[in-house]
Design brief:
heterodimer, A: alpha/beta, Rossmann fold, Ubiquitin-like (UB roll), de novo design (two linked rop proteins), 3 domains, five-stranded mixed sheet, 15 helices, 11 strands, 44% helix, B: Glutaredoxin, 2 domains, four-stranded mixed sheet, 7 helices
Amino acid sequence: MSELVQRVDLIFGEYSDQKYKTLAETVGRSNEDIIKDLLDSGLKGRGGAGFPTALKWKFTMEQPADERFVICNADEGEPGTFKDREILSKVPRKVFAGMAICGKVIGAKRGFMYLRGEYKSLLPGLLKEIEIYDETAKKLGIDFKIEIRMGSGAYICGEESALFESMEGKRGEPRNKPPYPTVSGFMNKPTVINNVETFVNVLMICRIGPIQFRKLGTHDSRGSKVFSVSGDTPKAGIYELELGMPLAEFVEEFGDGDTKAVQVGGASGFCVPRKKFKDTIIGFEGVPTGGSMMIFNSSRSMYNVLHNYLEFFEEESCGQCTPCRVGCQQLRKGIEAVKRGDKPVVYLEQLMKLSETMKITAKCGLGQSVANSFSSIVSNFKEEMIY
Amino acid sequence: MATNNNNQIIKTLVDKYGRDRTSLMPILQGIVEQKNYLSDTDMTEVARELDLSAAQVYGTATFYSFLDTVPRGKYVIRVCKTITCDMHGKKLIVQTIENMLKIKVGETTQDKKFTLLQTNCLGWCHKGPSMLINDEVYADLTPEKTHEIIAEYMNK
């Protein structure tokens, strides 16, 4: 790896010499103290939306309730993302320890991991680790149980309220917000739901302290991030890097020398063309990402890429709200019609307007974010949409 | 006789997971694991056990792509069709399987051994093309490698 890109070894670093050492050290600390550390660390959620983790926990613990829950969102379905699978297969102990810390802070006795059905092969390893966790928890006197629930092949269940519905035995259809999960989540109880990587970050902050953690990354994007790199690259795989890196450096490191565009943040993220590599920062101040980085070289048709994304959204839309159910279909049919020549080029403008309408009217993140890839691909690669 | 057997499978699952609605997904997943799909009778039986309407069970089941409500083969092959796998030669993989099993995507072999489906992102983009056979993942596929894998399953 060149000097250009700074590698980090926080998430995938080795376990401590004693089992659940950091957890044992943390359970003795006051909740306020832990929340303060998380706040000072600047940690933002690693699932993509980037909500400050400390606030999420604080709101949940302050919500009066007889029961609260901790949920680890392991329904990693965004195209181009596979970092949670890697974390769960390599360092599951860190995830469970992070969940247990959360349970202590917010006063929850039960935690769940919602694991996507496609990752069922990880289940035996995870259950084995839970056994070790249970033994340790018993020794430390921690009253917090962790269970695993499986998904069954629905991308939308990665949306937190759809995930609650699914765990409650219903169709995975997102709920209206507010109320947010911190007030009314699983079983309508205050719930902290965090991404797999976020829980590991929590544990690492408890281990190395917020000051050390803050040294990584930039002002708006603290810490490291696990990136899933795929597409036209000789180095496809998982990389833990600092946040706040210019995209140009990323491409120089991972591209194949002929990179035309990078899709940052998966199908629901943004497509950045070559001319904008220099001015684009990977992080919450630039293009945010849940970790997905898909690289396309000059041989790829961006029409095909967009078409593939739209088919994906069309199939994965839960169908509950009209803007998303009908919008996804119409966008796909629309670009097909322009390509065939059945519709004039100006029709693309109309489709752009439709995607903008979906952004403000769709009920959840799925329908709202279709516009991200749609408008960034159509506006930057218009010729490819037409000819 | 067969019906009794079915009821036994459901009963065991219900006893294991409980009769609460939160147990519905694990129960349905358990049935699919053992019988490859959810029949109408099974869904009605689950509804009766959990004191739900059959429509509620059917509604939940049909939402999820892995909870099949039509008969499937013993081995369900799901080839990833999302962008990276698609770019790296998914089409050839599908063709290889179609030629070997003499079925098209969406179909089941006559002996009910294989069903061929396509699915969305499996999370193996760095090693595409990829596919699932039941819960088992196969990545870095080439037509040759796919041929070997399927041949092995055909002999099982």
